[in-house]
UniProtKB/TrEMBL annotation:
<feature type="region of interest" description="Disordered">
    <location>
        <begin position="322"/>
        <end position="342"/>
    </location>
</feature>
<keyword id="KW-0503">Monooxygenase</keyword>
<dbReference type="InterPro" id="IPR050493">
    <property type="entry name" value="FAD-dep_Monooxygenase_BioMet"/>
</dbReference>
<dbReference type="InterPro" id="IPR036188">
    <property type="entry name" value="FAD/NAD-bd_sf"/>
</dbReference>
<dbReference type="Pfam" id="PF01494">
    <property type="entry name" value="FAD_binding_3"/>
</dbReference>
<dbReference type="InterPro" id="IPR002938">
    <property type="entry name" value="FAD-bd"/>
</dbReference>
<dbReference type="GO" id="GO:0004497">
    <property type="term" value="F:monooxygenase activity"/>
</dbReference>
<feature type="domain" description="FAD-binding">
    <location>
        <begin position="5"/>
        <end position="332"/>
    </location>
</feature>
<keyword id="KW-0560">Oxidoreductase</keyword>
<protein>
    <submittedName>
        <fullName>FAD-dependent monooxygenase</fullName>
    </submittedName>
</protein>
């Protein structure tokens, strides 16, 4: 079966979905609210599950070229610099780190010219047995189905699931930045009430993030870089140096939120994907990765369908049945991990447990097949038509 889909949202999840649809012979119209295609944020890592999905799109090689191996999960430290666990020279790491813009560009390059329409803010959806019409100020388009990939503040989610609560503040806030510092292997430093993450990224840069507990959302500071530096002044190097090397305007301050679980990601011929369906805290590094997984599973569900009445709805129901349990479990796990890693009350027990764990056992747990989330393999997509 082939058809036409409207993808609402031109971020990593929406573009991944467009690439996957192209792979199975579908056509897509991607509607992006921003005036130009761009990815907001700083850095990220992608685990083996997401990298396998990119391989299925034919983007594994470009992803490996754009990403940088990071040993963050193998180098765990205390604020005074002592190591709880330490990666050994020559250890393999299954994680690749990216500037978000680099991964976004890789996916954007896989979307055919003319598929992306920017500066388009969706205002309405109307569906019937034959398809779905999407409207915006000054225009509309009709297609066989709609994928809402428009993020944690999703318009699609709000239009079709109007009774669902808004994003939920998780009691944590984060400062993010990119510093022109190369050669760092990646690490996580665990403090009482917060942690500091470092990933090396392309072109001799480092991505850093400081996640800390917060009493309320939307607390902002006149100089965000100064505030982050003040909080971390006594932590080991290169943490203060990384913050100092980051341009003032490049420090981003965000609050950590997620979404209540939905009973379904599908309504008729409309499906939610990525953060619009299952926004999660960053503590398992799976937000963008789960969006990429969504895209390949949705494409696989659509690929084998015959052109018969109800085929699209059936494919979307299978997508929901496969993706909702996994993504909701991942979101719950990320929320629990975030509580553990930033709770002052749990800090001593957590760091003691990590320090006492045999190094070989720790390395086994962070291997490519070391945990249930990373072991996931994508469904196979058909090869592109010649």
């Amino acid at each position: 079966m082939s058809g036409h889909a409207i993808v609402i949202g031109g971020g990593i999840g929406g573009l991944a979905d467009a690439v996957a649809l192209r792979r199975i012979g579908w056509r897509a119209t991607v509607l992006e609210r921003a005036g130009e295609p761009r990815e907001i944020g700083a850095g990220m890592s992608q685990a083996p599950n997401a990298l396998r999905a990119l391989e299925e799109f034919g983007l594994g090689g470009p992803a490996r070229a754009a990403g940088v191996p990071t040993y963050s999960a193998g180098n765990l430290r205390l604020p005074d610099g002592r190591y709880l666990q330490r990666a050994r020279p020559g250890d393999a790491t299954p994680l690749l780190a990216f500037h978000r813009a680099d991964l976004h560009r890789l996916l954007l390059d896989g979307v055919p010219a003319g598929w992306l329409r920017t500066g388009t803010e969706v205002t309405d959806l109307r569906q019937d047995e034959g398809g779905v019409t999407v409207a915006w100020d000054g225009g509309e388009v009709r297609a066989d189905l709609v994928i809402g990939a428009d993020g944690i503040g999703s318009v699609v989610r709000r239009l079709l699931w109007p009774g669902t609560p808004p994003p939920r503040f998780l009691g944590r806030t984060a400062w993010l930045g990119i510093a022109p510092v190369g050669g760092l292997p990646g690490s996580i430093t665990l403090g009482s009430g917060g942690y500091f993450l470092i990933h090396p990224i392309s072109r001799g840069r480092a991505y850093w993030a400081y996640v800390a507990t917060a009493d309320r959302p939307d607390a902002r500071f006149e100089e965000e870089k100064v505030e982050a530096a003040r909080r971390l002044a006594s932590w080991h190097e290169p943490i203060p140096a990384l913050i100092a090397a980051t341009p003032d305007e490049a420090v981003i301050h965000i609050d950590i939120c997620d979404l209540d679980q939905l009973p379904s990601y599908v309504r008729g011929r409309v499906a939610l994907l990525g953060d619009a369906a299952h926004a999660m805290s960053p503590d398992r590094g799976q937000g963008a990765g789960q969006s990429i997984e969504d895209a390949v599973v949705l494409a696989a569900a659509l690929a084998g369908e015959a052109t018969i009445k109800g085929a699209i709805e059936g494919a979307l129901r299978r997508y929901d049945a496969e993706r909702r349990p996994r993504t909701q479990a991942t979101a719950r796990g990320a929320r629990a991990d975030g509580r553990r890693t930033t709770s002052p009350a749990a800090y001593r027990a957590l760091t003691t447990m990590i320090r006492l764990m045999p190094a070989a056992l720790w390395r086994k747990g962070i291997a490519a097949d070391g945990n249930r989330t990373w072991r996931w393999h994508p469904p196979r997509l058909p090869f592109p038509a010649s």
